[in-house]
C-alpha cells in the first residue's frame, strides 16, 4: 500500500509546487467563461429547435416543468451541465497549475474500483429507500419514455451528476480549501453556493444546503469525488426515471419530511464511509500525480528562481567583503 497523500482532498491543490493563491481564481474565471459560453450556445440551439426561448424555458426553466423524458429536454437540462467535465479538463490544460486528475481525487485521479463499490453502497442506502418513498407517495405509472430517450437519460443523467461534483466538490471546494487551509470552511462555502444554484422552496434550500455539506464531507472522507458522485447519481436517477414514468418525482416544493429522510440517508452513507476510511479503504493510491507533476515542472521553477536571484543580487561592498572573508590564507 502506498503512503497516504500529504494533503486531504479539500487542500490537495497546495501539494503542487505551481500553486499560487490566484491560480484557482484564474482557473475558476476561465471555467466560468467557457461554461457560460457553452450554456448560451446550447440554449440558443434549443430555442432554434423548439421554436423560441419560451419553449426552452418551459422544459428547462424550473423544476415544476422540467422535462427529462424527451430528447431536447434531456439535452437542455442535463447535457448543459455534463459539458462541465470536458470544460474543466480544458481549463486545467490552459492554466497548467495542476493536472485534471487532482480535481477527481487526492489518490491519483478517478478510481473506477472505488466508484463501482460506492455505487453499490449508494443503491442500497439511497436508491432503495428513495424508490420506496416515491412509490408510496405517488399514483400509477404513465410512461413518457421512448427507448431512445431512456438510453439518452441513462447516459446523460450520471454525467450531469458527476459534472456537478467536479464543479462544487472539486473546483469550488478545493479552491476554498487551498485558500483557507481549513477543510470545514471549504465544505460549508461550497455547500452555500450549491444551495444558491438550486431553485427550491425554503425547505428545499435547507435540504440542498445539508446535502451539499454531506457531499463535501463524503469527498473529504474518501479523498475524492467518487463516493459523492455515486450517491448523487443514484438520488437523481431514481427521481429522473420516476418522473419519466409519470410519477411526478421532480418539483420545487420540498416538505419537511423529505428533508428528514434525506438527512437520514446521507448520514448513514457518511457513517459507512467513515468506517471504510478507518479500515484504510481510501488510503490506496493509484499513482502520485502531485509528485509526477512537480517533477515535470520543477526544472522550470528552478530556472525561474535562479533568474530571480541573479536579477536581485548586486555585487558591491558587501560582496567584496564576503570575497575577502572567504579568500584563502597565503
Features:
disordered C terminus, 330 residues, 13 helices, mainly alpha, globular
Q: Could you give the distance between the termini?
A: 59 Å
Number of domains: 1
Number of helices: 13
Q: Assess the beta-strand content as a share of residues.
A: under 5%
Number of strands: 0
> How many whole angstroms does the radius of gyration measure?
24 Å
Main structural class: mainly alpha
Biggest β-sheet, characterized? none
Q: Give the CA-based shape.
A: globular
Summed over residues and divided by their number, the pLDDT gives a mean of 89
Helix content percent band: over 70%
Run of helices and strands: HHHHHHHHHHHHH
Oligomeric state of shown chains: single chain
Give the low-confidence spans. 317-330
Structure description:
It is a single chain. The protein has 330 residues and is mainly alpha-helical. It has one domain. It is 71% helix and 0% strand. The protein contains 13 helices and no strands. It has helices spanning 22-50, 53-60, 71-82, 84-95, 101-104, 112-137, 147-180, 183-196, 202-222, 226-244, 256-278, 289-312, 317-325. α1 packs antiparallel against α4. The chain is globular and about 80 Å long.
Amino acid at each position: 500500500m502506498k503512503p497516504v497523500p500529504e494533503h486531504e482532498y479539500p487542500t490537495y491543490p497546495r501539494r503542487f509546487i505551481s500553486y499560487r493563491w490566484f491560480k484557482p481564481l484564474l482557473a475558476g474565471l476561465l471555467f466560468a467563461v467557457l461554461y457560460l459560453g457553452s450554456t448560451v450556445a446550447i440554449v440558443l440551439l434549443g430555442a432554434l429547435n423548439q421554436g423560441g426561448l419560451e419553449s426552452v424555458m418551459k422544459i428547462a426553466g424550473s423544476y415544476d416543468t422540467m422535462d427529462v423524458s424527451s430528447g431536447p429536454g434531456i439535452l437542455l437540462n442535463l447535457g448543459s451541465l455534463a459539458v462541465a467535465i470536458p470544460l474543466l479538463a480544458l481549463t486545467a490544460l490552459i492554466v497548467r497549475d495542476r493536472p485534471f486528475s487532482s480535481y477527481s481525487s487526492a489518490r491519483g485521479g478517478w478510481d473506477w474500483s472505488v466508484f463501482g463499490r460506492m455505487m453499490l453502497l449508494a443503491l442500497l442506502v439511497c436508491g432503495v429507500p428513495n424508490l420506496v418513498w416515491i412509490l408510496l407517495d405517488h399514483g400509477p405509472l404513465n410512461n413518457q419514455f421512448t427507448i431512445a430517450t431512456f438510453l439518452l437519460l441513462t447516459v446523460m443523467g450520471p454525467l450531469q451528476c458527476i459534472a456537478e461534483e467536479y464543479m462544487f466538490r472539486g473546483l469550488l471546494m478545493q479552491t476554498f480549501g487551498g485558500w483557507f487551509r481549513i477543510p470545514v470552511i471549504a465544505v460549508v462555502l461550497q455547500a452555500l453556493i450549491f444551495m444558491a444554484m438550486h431553485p427550491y422552496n425554503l425547505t428545499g434550500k435547507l435540504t440542498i444546503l445539508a446535502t451539499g455539506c454531506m457531499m463535501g464531507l463524503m469527498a473529504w472522507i474518501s479523498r475524492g469525488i467518487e463516493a459523492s458522485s455515486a450517491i448523487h447519481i443514484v438520488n437523481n436517477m431514481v427521481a429522473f426515471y420516476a418522473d419519466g414514468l409519470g410519477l411526478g418525482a421532480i418539483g420545487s416544493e420540498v416538505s419537511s419530511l423529505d428533508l428528514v429522510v434525506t438527512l437520514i440517508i446521507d448520514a448513514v452513507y457518511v457513517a459507512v464511509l467513515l468506517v471504510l476510511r478507518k479500515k484504510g479503504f481510501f488510503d490506496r493510491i493509484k499513482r502520485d500525480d502531485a509528485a509526477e507533476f512537480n517533477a515535470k515542472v520543477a526544472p522550470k521553477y528552478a530556472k525561474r528562481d535562479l533568474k530571480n536571484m541573479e536579477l536581485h543580487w548586486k555585487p558591491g561592498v558587501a560582496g567584496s567583503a564576503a570575497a575577502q572573508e572567504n579568500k584563502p590564507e597565503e
